[in-house]
Design brief:
8 strands; two-stranded parallel sheet; six-stranded antiparallel sheet; Thiol Ester Dehydrase, Chain A; 6 helices
């Protein structure tokens, strides 16, 4: 487990801190297919391994939004905020997908707590995240995530 803080005051003290990296997780074809079923996005580049093998990436690739959705479980390995009543995903400031995630690849998150700002009843954090693919030359996703924590 990464960093654990108790309460908003301890969280504020972490502003500007490197949060480290999560463990690696595998993005399986089964996970990609499940995401396709959940979202209705069954484009062949994701769900047809035979056709995708002959496509531009040489294999099926994860949906960009699947990669993005894995930010939350990866992030929970980096920072655990205790002593608050509510934790809310507030949104994203930016997201880019510089490189695809091929089925069977492993990814992890490197994070930095860029900002902690006060909001009525709590704080908002901005986390700069980079989702890396094992052995990849470019990141799979680069993002700034916003979350709110209320006392």
């Amino acid at each position: 487990m990464g960093i654990t803080v108790n309460g908003l005051d301890e969280l504020k003290k972490l502003a500007g801190s490197d949060l480290g990296t999560s463990e690696w997780i595998e993005v399986t074809q089964e996970r990609i297919d499940t995401f396709a079923d959940a979202t209705g996005d069954h484009q062949w580049i994701h769900v047809d391994p035979e056709r995708a093998a002959a496509g531009p990436f040489g294999a099926p690739i994860a949906h960009g939004y699947l990669t993005l959705s894995l930010f939350i479980p990866l992030f929970t390995e980096l920072l655990d905020v205790q002593g608050v009543t509510t934790k809310v995903n507030y949104g994203l400031d930016k997201v880019r997908f510089p490189a695809p995630v091929k089925a069977g690849s492993r990814i992890r998150l490197a994070g930095r707590l860029a900002e902690v700002t006060e909001v009525p009843g709590g704080v908002q954090i901005a986390v700069d995240g980079t989702i890396e693919t094992e052995g990849g030359a470019k990141p799979a996703a680069v993002l700034r995530s916003l979350s709110r924590f209320y006392a």
